[in-house]
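Hi there, hope your week has been kind to you so far. No rush at all, and the record is pasted right below.
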Amino acid sequence: MRTPCVLALLASTALPVVAQQPTRTLSKPLAEYAEPFSQIAAVRELKDGRLLVVDSRDKLVQLVNLTANSATKVGREGSGPGEYGLPTQLFALPGDSSVIFDPLNQRYLMVHPDGKPGVSFRVGDEPSSAPRPQQGQRPEGGGQVMRIGGLGFGMPRASDARGRLYFEGGGISMGPNGPVTADTAPIVRYDRASKAVDTLAWVHLPKNNASVKSSGSGGNQRMEVRIGGRTPYPARDAWTVLPNGTLVIARVGDYHLDLVSPTRAVTRSAAVAFSAVKVGSAEKQEYRDQSKNAGGMSISRSEGGPGGSQTRASTAPPPFEEPAEWPSTKPPFNANGIFATPAGEIWIARNRTASDPIPTYDVFSAAGKLTGKVVLPKQTRVIGFGAGGTVYTIRVDDDDLQYLQRYRG
């Protein structure tokens, strides 16, 4: 049965928000962990204030006590019980439990509140079939809900207070001659309790957001999928999920928020005024420098051959390729810089000129209203939030080492 999608337009959507908003400055952290990380992919605050921290480049998960400046390793690298091959994401579940996304082993690893690893499971194996969009929902040129490294639904991006997981479908669709990149992708919700799977909305993707390479033939075939990292300053929608299950989509076209309720009712916020940042020679060099430590993920799967089927994954920066073309401007926000706080606020990182070293975040209420801005120190960015307004940031030093910090927001 087709589910209707209700659109409730706010009266203020006619004009962009231009009023001056209050600005908060985070200047001195409450604590900074002394040992550096290589690439902090995710943090999750537990009820006792300790942090689960995923370093995807070092393939390491730790339970960090910032107050005592100490850490304990969680699990270990491998493919057996309580092990992970490539930890890339970390999501909160009810009861202070957590789950680690491990694409190399094609599974998820539970972590108990005491930091001990638990059982592993595969989301893609649990439902009876892959989720399908509602009739008429899928836009022309839309990507598919696909399997990545054997994992159903695409890449996990968020969880809510009920433990439901949210995924972005693949930026690839199947054309008559094989896989092709898509310009939209579905946002999929998976309920671990009921096994229900549904598509909530679609997001716009940038050009060349994904690439597929195939080689070999017959019984010895190899396919490599790379997601992200192909377009300078990609103009794409960004999204996150509030604790109550509301999907928040920042639309890149005019910088407004779509708030999608758990029942798919959509509320559109007022557009946020912004001045487009031109991409000049300084911004091009900025992009080249940032690409040295860029994130992203590559997954390759070989079929047949002497070793049989093999899957490999990596978060190491790909070899840099000078872009064939550059955008004229940056999008208004960084699509990787959208966060939901435990209190229901939404933080979005604004793009800025190469000469501006000060990170700035727009802050929205749970209703989608712009309420203010937050300014961070140089070489710092947000990575997560905790109880009582706690903000966790990453400080990057001159050697590109990363330090985990705690602020009181």
About this structure: Confidence is low (pLDDT under 50) at residues 1-14, 126-136, 143-151. Residues 33-121+379-409 form a domain with the Neuraminidase fold (CATH 2.120.10.30). The first strand starts at residue 7 and ends at 9.
